[in-house]
Write a structure and sequence with these properties.
OB fold (Dihydrolipoamide Acetyltransferase, E2P), DNA-binding, globular, 711 residues
Length: 711
DNA sequence: GTGCCTCGAGTTCA
DNA sequence: CTCGAGGCAC
């Protein structure tokens, strides 16, 4: 396994080391392991073998054990926990793994049910059955069975692509390896979790063996499933509940209830508290019952999931971008903790936004020690907006206050409340600085904006660095070995000041140059060469990624994709951005006509290409920009613009729109020359006439359903 | 003008 | 994950 033995060649027994040698070696190990960890964590580019990684980590631990006084504040033993995740292969989910929308109050649930009825075109009192089940606090897993055999197991990942943990899933008793009487293709989805008793026992074993303990059962489950050595996973008591499915070759039933029964019959553990709820009252009763049992279940749950029971109705409702419309998670009240607010720091983001961050006396909330929390913006801290009106959830928050902290979505620490009785008498309302703490430029708040922004632009170090970090981020250029930390370090030394410097790095600091990367601390011949190669490999870049990487305000990943698809090539896009500066130009009209592009984004694009034309063009000249391909789809309506008019008799307007969009069609509100197809129900008026005048194809609802294969 | 829905931006801890 | 706000339909 150990291809690279250089670092071990001169290794000496730990007992023989002098203090000075130990200190030097710990420093070197911190550097190497930190880099290796970054490479694993961020990219798919391990810089050393797993065996060597483990060896170095053990060596570090051994030296620290003998010289406890020398343990560094940046010690790898503190930073490197579970095995690096990217050592796992990737699996693309055939059906995306979604998350759930949340309900926090009974009113939210009532709204959810009303929304279902509205979408389906049902009367407010029409019967509508749902199901309720506990929401397990673990990590979701997708299991793919082909001809009854377990083929793949994948974590959720970002929903599109997860990690391949097949070898580990095969080690778990509660996951069937073979199925009988199953559909040829069956993807089962569920939750991996660890029970309270198993968690306590595991931590006790870990402590006895001198290992680190886990903060909570969910972390223990995640750490155990993501072991590189399946043997370790085998020894961990992981459990599983099935609650959903992905692709299937034959339906599991007509309702959620039937499908869950079928999964149970196939041998999957399903939750015993699953319940069929014909009415809203049944649903809320189920919630209270499950909440009452929460402490005695023996495993963590964080709410109750409601799903529409009828699967054909589920299909009609369809999906939003990241959540299904037919399900919701009714969350339990979050765990709370009181602590003191020791200070408020100001961070400066990529766009210059000044965000206040609370520095808290460390406190345990929901099994995790929290010491920072976001405070959003100045209105939030003042408890009122710029006109003095109180704002929702805002609080008068001051340094020195006792504050109540919770973790929103069980993740992001937030401040819920302030105890006025314990406010120190010296406290004063927090004042946002009028100048950027990083560069001293005036920090201004535009009318109507809730955020104060540094006006320094790219002369502000914080903005410049954040821009660079954005440029190399995963969804942008994603250069192996050039992550946030490296970019910041290069920026500090003036090696990379703007994005284009990345692509001239080899010319300026490569072989033959007076200053060379390989002589830089922490770099060698090989690693320098690898970085140059990694950079070169990203010169060829899809148009969408480049547009996103530019970091133009209001242009995120999605909008960048839309723009790329619309213009196709860099030269077309680049020309349009210049021409659009004239609001009377056709370029302007075309730009603002793009679905999802409005006046704010247009202005932002125009300004960016005026102010930064030189740097952008210099960058583009160093790249090989790939044209965007029109999205291919097998649906007959993909890419078509359709308009609905008149009364639809077999579905609501919302449903028709959602379905058409799911098939790749664009749904417009009015007929124009861009319209490809008009679906006209009874009572269609001017739109149908206009369509006829323009020679646009007009069909009725039945023909439409036949066209999309859904009659 | 109101009310979705989505997107962008900033966020934590491991 | 959440908030704020842009974009769009009604």
């Amino acid at each position: 396994m150990a291809q690279d033995t250089t670092s071990k060649t001169h290794e000496r027994a730990v007992e023989d080391l002098t203090t000075a040698e130990a200190r030097a070696e710990l420093e070197a190990l911190a550097l190497h392991l930190g880099r290796a960890n970054d490479a694993y964590f961020r990219d798919d580019a391990p810089v050393m073998s797993d065996a060597e990684f483990d060896h170095l980590r053990n060596r570090n631990a051994a030296i620290e054990k003998r010289f406890p006084d020398l343990i560094r504040s940046d010690s790898p033993s503190r930073q490197i926990g579970a095995a690096p995740s990217d050592a796992f292969g990737k699996i693309r989910h055939t059906r995306r793994m979604l998350s759930l929308a949340n309900a926090f109050t009974e009113d939210d649930v009532v709204d959810f049910i009303a929304g279902l009825r509205r979408f389906l075109g049902l009367a407010p009192d029409a019967p509508l059955a749902l199901t309720a089940e506990p929401k397990i606090d673990g990590l979701s897993l997708s299991l793919r069975y082909e001809n009854g055999q377990l083929r793949h197991a994948a974590t959720r990942g970002d929903g599109e692509t997860g990690e391949d943990v097949t070898a580990n899933a095969r080690m778990l008793d509660e996951i069937p390896q073979h199925l009988t009487d199953a559909p040829d293709l069956l993807e089962v989805r569920g939750e991996i979790y660890m029970s309270h008793s198993d968690f306590a026992a595991l931590n006790a074993r870990q402590a006895a063996a001198g290992g680190k303990s886990f903060a909570n059962p969910r972390n223990a489950a995640a750490g155990s499933l993501r072991q590189l050595d399946p043997g370790i996973t085998r020894a961990r008591p992981l459990r599983f509940f099935a609650y959903a499915w992905g692709a299937v070759s034959a339906p599991l039933g007509q309702t959620q209830t039937e499908a869950i029964d079928r999964l149970t019959a196939l041998g999957f553990p399903t939750n015993p508290l699953f319940r069929y709820c014909p009415t809203l009252d049944d649903l809320l009763t189920a919630y209270r019952d499950i909440e009452a049992q929460r402490a005695s279940l023996g495993y963590d749950i964080d709410g109750v999931v409601y799903k529409l029971d009828d699967l054909s109705q589920q299909e009609r409702l369809g999906l939003r971008s990241t959540t299904p419309r037919w399900a919701i998670a009714h969350k339990f009240p979050a765990e709370l903790a009181w602590t003191r607010l020791d200070g408020i720091d100001i961070q400066v983001g990529r766009t210059g936004a000044l965000s206040p961050v609370a520095r808290l006396s460390p406190v345990t909330v929901g099994g995790v020690v929290v010491s920072n929390a976001t405070l959003h913006n100045e209105d939030y801290i003042a408890g009122r907006d710029s006109r003095g009106a109180p704002i929702r959830d805002g609080r008068d928050i001051r340094i020195g206050d006792w504050v109540q902290v919770y973790r929103a979505g069980d993740v992001i620490p937030k401040i819920r409340d302030v105890d006025p009785a314990r406010r120190p008498d010296w406290s004063t309302p927090f004042q946002m600085p009028a100048h950027c703490p990083e560069c001293g430029s005036p920090a201004l708040r535009e009318p109507g904006d809730s955020v104060r922004r540094c006006t320094g632009g790219l002369t502000c170090p914080a903005q410049a660095v954040e821009r660079l970090k954005h440029f190399v981020s995963r969804a942008a250029f994603d250069i192996d070995g050039l992550g946030a930390k490296q970019v910041e370090s290069f920026w500090r030394d003036g090696w990379i000041v703007a994005p284009r410097d990345i692509f001239t790095l080899r010319d300026r600091f490569g072989p033959g140059q007076p200053r060379q990367l390989k002589n830089r601390e922490g770099w060698g011949e090989k690693s320098a060469q690898n970085l140059f190669d990694a950079i070169d490999s990203k010169r060829r870049i899809p148009l969408a990624r480049l547009i996103y990487a530019l970091g133009i305000r209001h242009v995120g990943e999605t909008s960048a994709g839309v723009l790329a698809t619309q213009y196709g090539t860099w030269s077309a896009f680049r020309a349009a951005m210049s021409e659009a500066a004239d609001p009377d130009s056709t370029a302007y009209a075309e730009l603002i006509a793009i679905d999802g592009v409005g006046p704010v984004m247009v202005q932002s694009l125009i300004t960016a290409f005026q102010v930064e034309a030189g740097t952008i063009d210099a960058l583009a000249a160093l790249l090989d920009i790939q044209a965007a391909e029109a999205r291919a789809s097998d649906s007959p309506v993909a890419g078509k613009t359709v308009v609905f008019t008149g009364t639809l008799e077999r579905m609501t307007r919302a449903e028709a729109k959602a379905r058409a969009e799911a098939l790749g069609a664009k749904v417009a509100g009015s007929v124009s020359t861009k319209t490809d197809l008009l679906i006209a129900g009874p009572g269609a008026g001017s739109k149908a006439k206009k369509a006829a005048d323009l020679g646009i194809e007009v069909i009725d609802e039945d023909q439409w359903l036949a066209l999309i294969g859904a009659s």
